[in-house]
Design brief:
- With 127 residues, this protein is mainly alpha-helical.
- Helices cover 70% and strands 0% of the residues.
Length: 127
């Protein structure tokens, strides 16, 4: 076997042990667990002793998901900026225009997206 593939053998072994443990504990709990009668009272969610009323989950506005996606977008920007900043000084000696131009174009596209989100009032919490 290739020596490079042998390096992944411990990871595969760990995956098999983890899956065996997960399915094994589920199987043991089904086989050895107590089987009692389930009543309606036992099946309702516990909410501080109060009888639950209404739906279990509230409906979320689309605005919430839009803001969450924008947050993820700008987080990904930081993830791409950090490695660029780490190697910037080394790459500046070789290709100064290439590295700076690449990052300026990346930030430009991101800035256009930011302006679009501002224009569509995606960041307004009141609406």
């Amino acid at each position: 076997m290739d020596s490079q593939l042998l390096q992944y053998l411990p990871v595969l072994l760990l995956l098999l042990v983890a899956m065996g443990f997960a399915f094994g504990t589920l199987a043991i709990s089904v086989l050895l667990g107590k089987r009692g009668r389930r009543t309606r009272t036992k099946d309702i969610a516990y909410e501080c002793g109060m009888v639950p009323e209404g739906e279990g989950s509230a409906r979320m506005s689309v605005k919430f998901y839009l803001v969450a996606l924008l947050f993820v977008l700008f987080d990904v920007e930081v993830v791409f900026l950090y490695p660029w900043a780490v190697v910037y000084r080394e790459m500046l000696r070789e290709n100064a225009a290439l590295i700076l131009g690449g990052m300026v174009s990346f930030l430009g596209v991101l800035f256009v997206g930011f302006l679009y989100a501002l224009r569509k009032r995606a960041f307004d919490w009141g609406h």
